[in-house]
Specification:
Layout lengths: L4 E8 L2 E8 L2 E5 L1 E3 L12 H6 L5 E4 H6 L3 H6 L3 H5 L5 E4 L2 H6 L4 E4 L2 E5 L6 E4 L1 H11 L3 E3 L11 H28 L31 E3 L1 E2 L5 H14 L5 E3 L8 H11 L9 E3 L5 H9 L4 E3 L2 H7 L2 E4 L2 E4 L19 H5 L2 H9 L4 H27 L2 H14 L4
């Protein structure tokens, strides 16, 4: 695999400072990745995301497959060109969407059969199909198709899903390597308007070649240490991966159970590979995960919460629509460089939200992302200084002292 690598230094306990190199640049870790489900972070431009401090973003293969279609993304030069983002990107396979849209799908050994929420059409989603989709989309890092089940599921159900995820991983690996060797199938049927530039898929010599990509496996097993251990052993025995993800958390389990699962997984994962914790994005959870050796994170919660009026501050979460903010001339926080904090006060931000002005959700979503980027920057700085553990403990004590307001 060309173009990928990972190195780390300045460990403070299990926490470590790292650099994950991809064909589109190097990410300093620990790092939080904004979620751009449809190759767009909802309501925000890529320029705003970059200014907020983002190094890497992710999109969702399931959603892009349904609309506009993975072949369409490929025809426009891949997801980087399509979205106008020149940094590293990752695509999630859609395992979480399969889990969350249970009423629309059936899962069996072959894969997933589901009906589109858009038009009711029937689709077959197999490990092989997912690899074809993700190789068309063209992100730097792509995820295996796994089987995700509800948090708190019984040991037997968690075991069966973990074992199926390992079997699907092997099928993903085989198809990933076949596409690297034999090339992608040609794209046909896309018509360009008269006078418009030609599509990238018109280059029949270069188009079949998939760009350099890294396939990440996903550790599953619920909150059961024996299953997480078995999942990691199976993953490590099945290939030499460029990185490994830990999935199936933040889906309803207690926070301490989630932290205990970090403690189980981290010592078993290779130290020379990046560790991607999927779907975790609250400030306290990020610092707890960094303390336990995790490197990369993503979550829709920061932007979703911002769009609904809940924002992160050093003193916990604030609900901006509360009447106590009606005459409050203070910024959300004095320690944030985002437009919401540097240009507006709480009273005006509340006014935007209660009057349903589109600017309000945009500003608050951007604030939450900026806040998390700054938090990860501080984490890296204190790892370099060697005092991450004491800094993190102090930060968490203040953040948790007042709770949500």
């Amino acid at each position: 695999m060309t173009g990928f690598g990972f190195r780390h230094s300045h460990a403070n306990g299990s926490a470590r400072l790292g650099w994950f190199t991809t064909p589109h640049g190097t990410i300093e870790t620990p790092a939080f990745m904004p979620v751009g489900t449809h190759a767009s972070v909802r309501g925000l431009s890529m320029q705003e995301i970059r200014a907020a401090g983002a190094q890497m973003i992710l999109a969702n293969a399931y959603h892009l497959y349904l609309r506009p279609g993975d072949e369409m993304v490929r025809a426009f030069g891949g997801v980087h060109a399509f979205a106008r983002w020149d940094g590293p990107m990752l695509t999630d396979s859609g395992g979480y969407q399969v889990f969350s849209l249970a009423r629309y799908r059936q899962v069996n050994e072959a894969g997933v059969e589901f009906r589109s929420k858009l038009d009711g059409s029937l689709h077959q989603y197999t490990p092989e199909k997912v690899m074809q989709i993700e190789r068309n989309i063209g992100a730097d890092v792509i995820m295996q198709l796994d089987e995700l089940i509800e948090g708190g599921s019984a040991h037997r159900a968690s075991y069966l899903a973990m074992q199926r995820s390992l079997r699907w991983l092997e099928r993903c690996r085989v198809e990933f390597e076949r596409l690297s060797r034999d090339g992608r199938a040609p794209v046909t049927g896309l018509v360009v308007p008269e006078g418009a530039p030609p599509l990238f898929t018109r280059d029949v010599d270069r188009d079949p070649l998939a760009p350099p990509q890294a396939l990440f496996p996903i550790v599953q097993g619920g909150t059961y240490p024996d299953l997480r251990t078995a999942s990691i052993e199976g993953i490590l025995n099945s290939g030499d991966w460029e990185g490994i993800a830990v999935g199936g958390l933040s889906v309803g389990e207690a926070k301490q159970a989630m932290y205990d699962t970090f403690d189980t997984c981290a010592p078993l994962l290779p130290v020379n590979k990046p560790r991607y914790l999927m779907g975790v994005g609250f400030p306290d959870d990020l610092l707890e995960a960094v303390s336990r050796g995790m490197d990369l994170f993503d979550c829709v919660a920061p932007t979703r919460m911002g769009r609904h009026g809940t924002v992160f501050t050093r003193d916990g979460k604030v609900q901006i629509q509360k009447s106590s903010n009606r005459t409050d001339r203070r910024p959300l926080t004095d320690e944030c460089a985002c437009p919401a904090c540097t240009q507006y006060d709480r009273a005006y931000l509340r006014h935007l939200m209660v009057t349903e002005e589109p600017l309000g959700p945009r500003l608050l979503a951007l604030h939450n992302l900026t806040f998390l980027m700054a938090l990860m920057t501080s984490a890296r700085e204190h790892l370099l200084l060697g005092d991450y553990a004491s800094w993190s403990a102090s930060w968490l004590a203040r953040y948790r002292a007042k709770g949500q307001r």
